[in-house]
Amino acid sequence: MWSSRTCEPYMRVTVHFVEDWELKSACLQTSYFPQDHTGEHIAEALQDALTSWKLNLTGLVAITTDNGANVVKAVQLNSWMRMQCFGHRLHLAIGHGMDDARITRAISLCKKVVSTFSYSWRKRRELAEVQMLLGLPSHQLITETTTRWGSRLLMIERVLEQERALSKVLFADMKTRPLVLTWQNIEVLEAVQKALKPLQDFTDALSGEEYVTLSYVRPVLHLFNTSLLAPGEEDSELCKSIKTSIVNYLNNKYADPSTSDFLDIASFVDPRFRAKYIQSEKMDSLKHKVVLEAESLLSYQSRCLSELPGPAVPESVDRKEAAVAHTAKKKRSLASFFQQSTTTSTTFTQREAIENECSSYLLSVCLESDADPLKWWKEHEVAYPALSCLAKNTFVCQPPAPLLKGFSVAVETL
Questions:
Q1: Are the C-beta atoms of 277 and 218 separated by less than 8 Å?
Q2: What pLDDT is stored for residue 4 in this prediction?
Q3: Radius of gyration (Cα) for the chain, nearest Å?
Q4: Is-contact 113 119, C-beta < 8 A?
Q5: Residue 407 pLDDT
Q6: Is 17 helix (H, G, I), strand (E, B) or coil?
Q7: d(CA 255, CA 244)
Q8: What whole-number distance in Å separates Cα of residue 203 and Cα of residue 169?
């Protein structure tokens, strides 16, 4: 859901798919949406969009959305699998971790300092002079953008970098002297900076649309819990509190059984990770789910292929083939009975074949972390036909963040 520059509401529907083992996306429609943006209206509009494009809901893997309550309700009403953009989820988790009176007070003071210098040419001139005097970089202050948590971190880092120069300029004016940062404010800002700095690159990295990102969610959560957001001995109590709050929020949001299973399967079919980040006690259950899911996909593909109209074969060709088959029939030898018996004893059911695929796949060498899993599957599709089908079905889930950028550009032309 979006609004144009003239405040007219629109809804954009985008589909993602894998073609020749490359991630593809296509905007189906950007349509005028004058109704109230309730969950019921959005759910109905999404159904109408899929129907108008004659898309089979059986092929719908999941829908990726932000955290808007009306959009979430629309997905629930349609009984679809929903995956929230990890970048949005991380933004909310960080906001949850910053819910502390000390942090609120220090951030508010930072904003006032930035605002003071932003609207006063005299203050900026004095700041430049003090920067040269103290040998500090000639950097301007950074304004926070509410919807981008990274901008808050950049604002804090710049204020801490220029703290000596800012204090000197602010203290020289009686009106701005109350804005001078105290040592308590500096300690709070340093704690926030230390807690959030390791997360700075994850929002953009996990919001890509030209490479697989869904399978990274489980490894990233493991990394957060064991390393990046694990409280350290040198961390202050506030820093530990921020890290713990962010981790607990993310863990709770991804604890839903269906979501957790989907992330486990996505990580499992990524040759860079396989079972590396799956809990050992869940492996047997996960293998069973992988086999059932792959079996279901193969059956669905068979049904789709059977419904396709085949080429017409002339009757004369059928008669010729029957005549050739009749003349080619030969008397069987005694050895042929033993060959048939051997062949029959080594055949597997479809489920057993998929189970063997899983065992062989887990024994193969893991791919390098910076390698392309889509390229690997393209090269090994013949060796693992069932699992490759599951991988292709799983990797289509993409975050909406980059798509929203494209949408905003599209709406400007309307």
A1: yes
A2: 77
A3: 29
A4: no
A5: 41
A6: strand
A7: 16
A8: 35
pLDDT at 271 over 90: yes
Q: Which of 107-111, 318-322, 409-413 has the lowest mean pLDDT?
A: 409-413
In the beta sheet, which residues pair with residue 65?
Answer: 84
Q: Which of 91-100, 281-290, 391-400 has the lowest mean pLDDT?
A: 391-400
Question: For residue 344, is pLDDT > 50?
Answer: no
Q: Give percent of the chain above pLDDT 70.
A: 84
What pLDDT is recorded for position 221?
Answer: 92
DSSP string of 286-320, one letter each residue: HHHHHHHHHHHHHHHHHHHHHHSPPPP--HHHHHH
**DSSP β-ladder status, 63-65 and 82-84:** parallel
Closest CA to 399 of 205, 254, 262: 205
**167-176, 255-264, 267-276, 346-355: the lowest-pLDDT one:** 346-355
Instruction: Report the C-alpha gap between 391 and 274 in whole angstroms.
Output: 11
Q: For position 412, what pLDDT does the model report?
A: 38
pLDDT of residue 309 exceeding 90: no
- Cα 306 to Cα 45: distance, rounded to the nearest angstrom: 31
Q: Are 132 and 75 in contact (CB under 8 A)?
A: no
Between residues 310 and 214, the one the model is more confident about: 214
User: Taking the model in full, what pTM does it have?
Assistant: 0.79
Q: For residue 92, give the nearest of 59, 115, 69 by alpha carbon.
A: 69
What is the C-alpha separation between 286 and 264, in angstroms, rounded?
Answer: 8
Largest CA distance in the chain: 111
230: Cβ contacts below 8 Å, ≥ 6 apart? 243
If 0-12 CB within 10 Å is exposed, 13-18 middle and 19+ buried, where does residue 4 land? middle
What is the rounded CA–CA span in Å between residue 66 and residue 89?
A: 8
Measure CA of the first residue to CA of the last residue in the chain; give whole Å: 15
Which helix (H) or strand (E) covers residue 22, if one does? strand 22-32
CB burial of residue 237 (10 Å; 0-12, 13-18, 19+): exposed
Q: Kind and range of the H or E element at 84?
A: strand 82-84
Question: Measuring CA to CA, how many Å separate 92 from each of 68, 118, 247?
Answer: 12, 28, 12
What single-letter amino acid sits at 184? Q
Helices (H), 229-372: 237-253, 257-268, 283-307, 315-328, 334-345, 350-363
Note the pLDDT of residue 325.
52
